[in-house]
Amino acid sequence: MASPPLAGLHPDAVPVLDLLTVPQVMARLQLGRSAVYDLLRTGQLASITLGRARRIPTHAVTDFIRTRLEQDAA
């Protein structure tokens, strides 16, 4: 049986989370590996662990940037 197309899903359906790897976050934030892991360790950047793999939701990167912009504006 085929899966329904995404356009046919109910609008209140839970959106698919885009998960990024640490190297992808490094590229997006233009930071080094240690800096990204420091942000993860201190809780400034949210992540999940799947087995031994660390994944960062795209919304966590957006939230981190928004928070930093608000702090800098204050």
UniProtKB/TrEMBL annotation:
Domain Helix-turn-helix residue range list: 19-68
Instruction: Fetch the Pfam families from UniProt.
Output: HTH_17
**Could you tell me which species this protein originates from?**
Streptomyces macrolidinus
- Please give the name of this protein: Helix-turn-helix domain-containing protein
